[in-house]
Amino acid sequence: xxxxxxxxxxxxxxxxxxxxxxxxxxxxxxxxxxxxxxxxxxxxxxxxxxxxxxxxxxxxxxxxxxxxxxxxxxxxxxxxxxxxxxxxxxxxxxxxxxxxxxxxxxxxxxxxxxxxxxxxxxxxxxxxxxxxxxxxxxxxxxxxxxxxxxxxxxxxxxxxxxxxxxxxxxxxxxxxxxxxxxxxxxxxxxxxxxxxxxxxxxxxxxxxxxxxxxxxxxxxxxxxxxxxxxxxxxxxxxxxxxxxxxxxxxxxxxxxxxxxxxxxxxxxxxxxxxxxxxxxxxxxxxxxxxxxxxxxxxxxxxxxxxxxxxxxxxxxxxxxxxxxxxxxxxxxxxxxxxxxxxxxxxxxxxxxxxxxxx
Length: 358
Ligand SMILES: [Mn+2]
Prior knowledge:
By secondary structure, the protein is α+β, with helices and mostly antiparallel strands.
């Protein structure tokens, strides 16, 4: 069934922004509004919302959806021109909000067929609603992170087992499986100097004493994602690495302490970044402080120097400062937070004091 409360909210915002019709193609956004995941690959899939109420779901017959979704379905097949069919339903001449990820080959053809309409990025309207999680979503976000805490604990116990990065990542998949969840993204397990690539892909490397292990993992439970990073050390912690760990830990805490409604995302980023800069490692903190998360691991709205939007209750995002000394050591500490009326709730609770394993 269409999630009527959410649909009403988006229709209100469309009216306020003067966008009477919206084309939504992102499967996560369609799930958010209809409760149904539809993955149609390269075939056109569009949920059309209109201020006139004649909402339609345009869908290829190759992806049969038998459920009653509370919205009329317009079927087409591979021998038909999907864009031409869509264009018969839209209100030509009036502005059209378009999904930011709708392939250009669809959009360009629709623009030819509805030339008098003004086309705008319509995703921002829905993205803003999706940023603030409702009570049900908040509960699901908490649950996913609690399970991720359990998985992190089990995984860290395996580190002295002599596994390569790849093998350890495979063990995580098995742990998630036993806990009844799946991966929300490909796990990052990085030993030693590999950890200086923030998006390192696990390989055959094995762990040496004194090296750090970056463990950046997330599960998905009931469609909602967790994401957490811990950095632990094998056998001992070299002094230089301990110094970096302390700086990253403090940056993580300062950013979290900063969070409350009305604070700008860029101020939260600055709370972490300024501490790392003051310690002399500014140029080794190479990425934003965090990203929004929910149905997708990376959602609209990041914790970065250029995002001047204010945080609001119900938003969920990561706080993940890191320092990466090329060829030497990498440390990242990531938590998920849920903004509350007073401040924030940290969704994952796995220990983040420096930890030595093995
Ligand atoms: Mn993350």
